[in-house]
Amino acid sequence: MTTTTDAPTTAAPGGVRLPAPIEGERPTRGVPFTRLLRVELRKMFDTRAGRWLVIGIGVVVAGALGILLVRDGGDRPFEEYLQATTMPMAVLLPVVGILAVTSEWSQRTALATFTLEPRRARVAWAKTLAALVVAAGAVLCAFGLAALAHAAAIGLRGATGDWEIGSTVLLGAAGYVLLFLLQGVAFGMLLRNTPAAVVAFFVLPTAWSILGTLVSQVRTASEWLDLNRTMEPLFVGSISGEQWAQLGTSVAAWVVLPLAVGMWLTSRVEVK
Amino acid sequence: MISFDHVTKRYGGFTALDGVSFEARPGRVTGFLGPNGAGKSTAMRVAAGLTPATSGRATVLGRPYGTLPNPGRHVGMLLDASAQHAGRTGREVLTLGAILTGVDRRRVEETLDLVGLTEKEAGRRVRNYSLGMRQRLGIAHALLADPEVLVLDEPANGLDPAGIRWMRDLLRGYAARGGTVLLSSHLLNEIERVADDIVVIGHGRIVAGGTTRELLAGSGTTVRSADDARLRSALGTAGLSASPLAAGGLLVDATPEVVGAVALEAAVVLRELRSGDGRGLEEMFFDLTADAAREEVAA
Q1: Fold annotation for B219-275
Q2: Contacting residues of A for B106, CB less than 8 Å apart
Q3: DSSP notation for chain A
Q4: A-chain residues within 8 Å CB-CB of B88?
Q5: Domain B2-213 CATH assignment equals 3.40.50.300
Q6: What is the ipTM of this complex?
Q7: Which pLDDT score is estimated for A238?
Q8: What local confidence, expressed as pLDDT, does residue B9 receive?
Q9: Are the Cβ atoms of B45 and A271 closer than 8 angstroms?
Q10: Which of the residues A116, A117, A127, A194 would you substitute to probe the B interface, choosing the one with the greatest number of B C-beta atoms within 10 Å?
């Protein structure tokens, strides 16, 4: 460093430099939530794992869109393009959510995180909100890319094009990305261990779905508690009042409840 | 200022901290000395609010850590140099700290420079750091937001001799400027060279505490009497040097027999008269360490 900012550092015995004091009063107010949110967002993507996940999602989306464009002259409805962009995000982004929480424990950065903000619930909320921001951005990206690809198919490849799409389908596509990412965060908080959370996230809902179709006794339960199943009416395009209730119940069971318990645990467990 | 007030921490049937009480005062370096597994790290985590105490309380700057507003600007913590994300660069670790505490981003480069991490090293991911580099990064993280209290757990681990000396000077300078420094170590000779005060912990209990000079005095006589002031002046008249102990009583540079004779002549009632501080600090610490070593072998 050759800058002039060296000047205020004070000398100590042995000629060691001390950090320059920061002028002004020490803060009497806590860390604002916006700053926590900013830091948590940044932490999701500033690690090697985070960066590679984003690159991976990009590659998968590009590959899927490429295949759609090339085969059959790209002549497919917009809905299929949308599926090609949202599916990879819905499947892979939750890992970003899981890692955002579990890496604090497996990499033990929780020591630093919770000494800089001891009100742990605020950190947990910042992580949750950061996941929502990421999900919203991903959904916008997915919709935009799908539209762009579909327009390209029409303009460049002479496809007929079919822009028609039900509003519940859009909602369902956005919901997939959003809910799964939140579920990832929730499972992370619940288990605080990367392999356990990843396995639980990918295996448990699928196992539950299979159980629901195979075993008649749990069929009714799965109608209310199987997120894969309760999401379906959205994509069919018509959803009844009871189906909304079923969707709500399954979201409460798989996303809200684990998130609530996870946050409660985050505030209580010993940080080592 | 850090203060522990009868802090006890139990894990099931195991007592990690047993009624720990001591203070680390501003303007002084306090050395927290004890063999591995004595409870140093647990105590520091209790001070940081990361580990809840079973009973008793620890305060930093007069309040529980959890109630400090923007604590990074008041207290710098290095609890474990290895507790950093392996996939993040050193510079990124500090940048996150700077954003959160709200200090100027320029401080990141200044602090990196201060702890001796080069531009190139700062750009590498922590997984590629040696333990010494992690310690320097951890110290940088603690110093980043110009705190008035520093808490460092085994900061000398992994540093080379030049690095240890640098850190010693840094901490002494920090305390000289009015800061409170609490650092732990399991090595007596490391602590005695930097600390003004020493607190010795073994098996979760504070077994000795006082100024470094007092504790290292070893030889001489410890005497407690009904009237220390009168005894001291009588000793002075007899040509003996006596210094008051923090916990009350005097430390006299003479044998117990001589001190007893002076007290008799001055007609001061003695309450305690013994050689040195019982045993020397080194001997006591050695016993503690040997205990712990035996347990490790047994386990």
Answers
A1: Phenylalanyl-tRNA Synthetase; Chain B, domain 1 (3.30.56)
A2: 5
A3: --SGGGTTPPB-GGG-B-PPPPPSPPP-S---HHHHHHHHHHHHHSSHHHHHHHHHHHHHHHHHHHHHHHGGGG---HHHHHHHHHHHHHHHHHHHHHHHHHHHHHS-THHHHHHH---HHHHHHHHHHHHHHHHHHHHHHHHHHHHHHHHHHHHHH---------HHHHHHHHHHHHHHHHHHHHHHHHH--HHHHHHHHHHHHHHHHHHHHH-GGGHHHHHHH-HHHHHHHHHHT---HHHHHHHHHHHIIIIIHHHHHHHHHHHHSPP-
A4: 46-47
A5: yes
A6: 0.89
A7: 86
A8: 97
A9: yes
A10: A116
All residue ranges of chain B with pLDDT < 50 are: 278, 299
> Which residues in chain B have Cβ-Cβ distances shorter than 8 Å to A108?
80, 82-84
Q: What is the pLDDT along chain A (272 residues), one digit of tens a residue?
A: 344 444 345 556 667 888 899 988 899 999 999 999 999 999 999 999 999 999 999 999 999 999 998 888 888 999 999 999 999 999 999 999 999 999 999 999 999 999 999 999 999 999 999 999 999 999 999 999 999 999 999 998 888 889 999 899 999 999 999 999 999 999 999 999 999 999 999 999 999 989 888 888 888 888 899 998 899 999 888 899 999 999 999 999 999 999 999 999 999 999 98
Q: Kindly report the nearest CA distance between residue A161 and chain B, in angstroms.
A: 44
Where do the structural domains in chain B lie, given as residue ranges? 2-213, 219-275
Of A19, A29, A38, the CB nearest to B146: A19
Q: Which of B40, B45, B46, B50 to mutate to test the interface with A (most CBs of A within 10 A)?
A: B50
Contact B177 A107 (CB under 8 A): no
B45·A1 Cβ contact <8 A: no
Nearest CB neighbour to B106, from listed A5, A14, A27:
A5
